[in-house]
Amino acid sequence: MLREPHVGSARLEFPIRINEVLSPWAARSPDRPALVEGTRVWSYRELWDAVRSTRNWLAEKGVRPGDRVMILNENSAAAIVLLLAVAALDAWAVPVGARLSDREIDLIRMHSGARRVIYTVAASQPAAAHARRHRAELETLPTACGSVAVGPLDPTCEPEPQETDPARQVAVLIYTSGTTGQPKGVMLTHRNLLFMAAVSGAIRQLGPADRFYAVLPISHIVGLSVVLLGSLLNGASVHLCPRFHPALAARALGQEHVTVMLGVPSMYALLAEYAEGSGLSSLLHPALRTIGACGAPLDPAVKLATERLFGMPLHNGYGITECSPTIAQTRLEDVRSDCSVGRILPGVETKLVGPDGSVVAPGEVGELRVRGPNVMRGYYNAPEETAAVMDNEGWFNTQDLARLEDGSLFIVGRTKELIIRFGFNVHPVEIEAVLNRHRDVLQTAVVGRTAGGDEEIIAFVQPVAGATPTISDLARHAASDLAPYKRPTRIVLVSSLPTSSSGKIRKSELKALAAGLGCHSA
């Protein structure tokens, strides 16, 4: 067992590999519920047995330690069993959301050099569509998880070297949009993930009596490390939901005795809208004890409306995939009226630096740097991109601007053009590259606009001289190559884009223009 700093009076302990979160509970409380998927309940013993048998099945499929295994999924027991079984083999899981576009899926498959791609077809229609496109073959897992599709073995895949310390072994490769428009694989180790599971679970005081509503995708870092692993490490049960819908969430809170909910701010805004449309001043949640927001800036109006709806504080946090992800989080005992993201996690170091690289004075705004057991190993096969954000002393540059007040962190802006939409990172350059491939488009500039506790994506498009593309045509073109959360909220046709004397597009002017646009979508 690894040991880490105290959270409160408790000293954290956790196993070496992520799959080992199951074994203590499988031995101690084998019949305790681990996963709830619809009407199917998986006990800790059933889940532990399923992971072990699937590990052997993967080995029979040619998966070796150090191989990358891409799991195309939506939240499901099959996806969780596969992910933990890959880890048990000392291979690298590459969890990918099945609702990404064909282009995005293929780029990740190519970049990761996956030995196998497995599609959770029984639990996801989009995964089944990708499986058909890739001519994957249907098989049945050696568990009660149902059918999956298995892509062909890639004989050119070379396994990555094994670490002598298994805690430093890469457990998952999570892809985010790169600043060049190409996918970036974030290498997260077993220790990265388990440290985060332990700390976040301790701060939320997770225990065997808890039922965590798992609507955040396990293909993304919060759903994986905080919700899934944090729950299983502490003997709680995970109530799986493949997609968010306010009516389904309200029913789960009222009927499934959910005790913990974590979501992006836009989910809470949709719940408030649903309640208002249903004539409800509050939601029924007989067992709920804490709610939290993550993944995007929390708007004060959304916080206030949510707290009125639930009758309890909405806690806030801040993180980034490269930090597994949480850096700061409000505590249960620290009820705030503002939108601070709370105190820095125990065991994590931070500093705020100015443009010259020196540490700023207390209370001043600086660029946030992070160091600790939550920080990634680096970007896969991208040493230059890794060196651009991590120095020789292990400090990671978040490129976010923040200030500290009385020990609490406030995020005040970003030094990059990143847009956060529905809790997902969206890089404008990727959308611009897709739109610019349209035959009638000369150039495009994409900016974000804050709206209703979330960010909208506004695309300004300059057509080729003489061309007359329609907004609906451009929207269809974007939809063919972009996941839904990356598609422009609004497309604006312009005769020209504002540029500086050097020819650089003045996005500050476009942001001001976007702020004054109406609310109808593309």
Would you spell out the secondary-structure blueprint of this structure?
Layout: E1 2-7, E2 10-14, H1 23-28, E3 33-37, E4 40-43, H2 44-60, E5 68-73, H3 77-88, E6 92-97, H4 102-112, E7 116-119, H5 125-133, E8 137-140, E9 147-150, E10 170-177, E11 183-189, H6 190-203, E12 211-214, H7 221-233, E13 237-240, H8 246-255, E14 260-263, H9 265-277, E15 290-293, H10 300-310, E16 314-319, E17 326-329, E18 343-344, E19 349-353, E20 366-371, E21 378-379, H11 383-389, E22 396-405, E23 408-414, E24 419-421, E25 424-426, H12 428-436, E26 441-451, E27 454-463, H13 471-481, E28 490-493, H14 507-515
Parallel strand pairs: 3-13, 5-6, 5-7, 12-13, 12-14, 14-15, 15-16, 27-28
Antiparallel strand pairs: 1-2, 3-4, 7-9, 8-9, 10-11, 11-21, 16-17, 17-18, 19-20, 20-22, 22-23, 24-25, 26-27
Helix pairs in contact: 2-3, 6-7, 8-9, 9-10
Q: Going across the major beta sheet, what is the strand order?
A: 4-3-13-12-14-15-16-17-18
pLDDT below 50 for ≥5 consecutive residues: which ranges? none
Structural class: alpha/beta
Number of strands: 28
Total helical elements: 14
Helix content: 25-40%
The first-to-last residue Cα distance is: 52 Å
CATH fold type of the domain at 419-515 = GMP Synthetase, Chain A, domain 3
